[in-house]
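Provenance

Sequences were taken from public entries as deposited. Structures were produced by running a predictor on each sequence independently, with no templates supplied. The record for non-specific serine/threonine protein kinase from Eragrostis curvula is shown for reference.
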Amino acid sequence: ACSSSTQASVEAGMDGTATDRDVLEEKLHNPSASPISLPYEFLKDITCNFSTEQELGQGGYGVVYKGLLRSGQIIAVKKLFDSYLVKDDGFQKEVTNVMGMKHENIVRLVGYCAETRGEATKLPDGINVMAEIRKRLLCFEYLPNKSLDKYISVFGIPKFGLVRLIFEAEQYHASVYVCSEESSGLDWNKRYEIIKGICSGLHFLNRECHIVHLDLKPENILMDATMRPKIADFGLSKLLGAQKSQTIIHGSIAGSLGYMAPEYFRGVVSPQADIFSFGVVIIEIITGQKHDYPSSTALSLQHQHVNANNGGTSTEISVQQYIDNVLAKWRNVFQEEQKYTSPQTYTEQVKEFITIALECVHPDSARRPDICEVFERLTGEICCCRKMVLLSVQPLELRFHFKTPHVLGFSSMHLNNHTDDAVAFRIVTKGRDKYFPGPVHGLVLPRSIYTLRVAMLLPEEEDNRFTIKLESTIAGDQYKRPEAEGSSSADDYNCLFTEAKNMGRKVQQAKLLFTVAHEVSFFDDEHTVNLHEQ
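Predicted structure for non-specific serine/threonine protein kinase:
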């Protein structure tokens, strides 16, 4: 509550702002309402002149205060730091266009203030002058359960390690500081729903709003009264176009240490940076342990170990061992708690989620899944941005017959382009390049069928049956000429797909089964698959 003197000031200003209060309170009852412009004096009133008693927290862009309305309802008022000198016209436009979108997993903006006021200001040399000071404030729905980080680091179960994922010599590793503390808190079902909710909100931002968050972390994920996660601060990087305080700074880069994708240090911004951050968040939610990264800006991208604090011991384990440790901890929980009626089912959920998280934190952005693939795998829903299947593949299984070990085997498949654009494709032979001496990429012209004849060398015995991905994406202008199809090298296609993924463009994939046939067989042409967006 306000102090008595401050409260008197608030009441004195009630009459002039009563209409604003009524409008705002009405907006709070209408989730579909657009954000409204609010006077600065009104926001001073409801926050008790921005008193420290009303302070909810401080972030990279400003201080958040509790605003109390006459009805007793509360809103969160973010007072942006004065260093963000955003012009009035640009601020209002970006607020309404960028931050006015609505989603159940996005913190809802209900109002804003953009005023320029003349105030007496003392210059560094001690001279008092009258200066124009821009006031920038944002009003959001109030979420009583604060931010997700409060539940990860304090109430998480099971707590068993500080994890830093690294990548070395084409293999994942994890450095884990093992500790024995376990405490009760969020159960698996709640963690499961929180992860899915964050994913849904991030999918909405990246795909439907074309916004890259750039600072996704537990502190920017707020929890409502039912523990539903809502992403906050999602539009501020675009809105303010400035660096944050309390962040790692590198040139024009602003972000939070431990959640920044490696390419972000080089100034490369894409939706895949958010995927990396989301992967770290998933790991923290599942392990119940907040990461403990060094706070120095000199942190190397090749940093391979976390700091082992409190007398702990750091050990490097393989990713499979890491996954096994995670599953072992949760398996014990599922077996001990009666409410988990099928421990095996829950364990499989944990395995799928932690596997996805590890894929998300891959240091190569092109090798991370995009938000549509993550969304579909985590939620089981079809990505709404999947407007059209680029290619359908027939058959799904390619069988190769070898008469002698040193003679090539051949198999064919048909790629049907359903679009009015040329579609580039490639077979991703990662780890098995030696089996494929010929080209496994090409261009399918609009509304046409391409027959690809794949040549393969006899694989090693343990590789007689394996799965490979076929990727497709809309080709650029340089690929659309029929004569260009034969002139583009594998490197050209690799560059095309890397660029498409980095820029968040549609890249679809199909899984193909390659088998070594022991006798000549015919393809089953009755099975057709639609490529799923990656």
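Residues 439 and 468 are 15 Å apart (CA to CA).
The mean pLDDT is 74.
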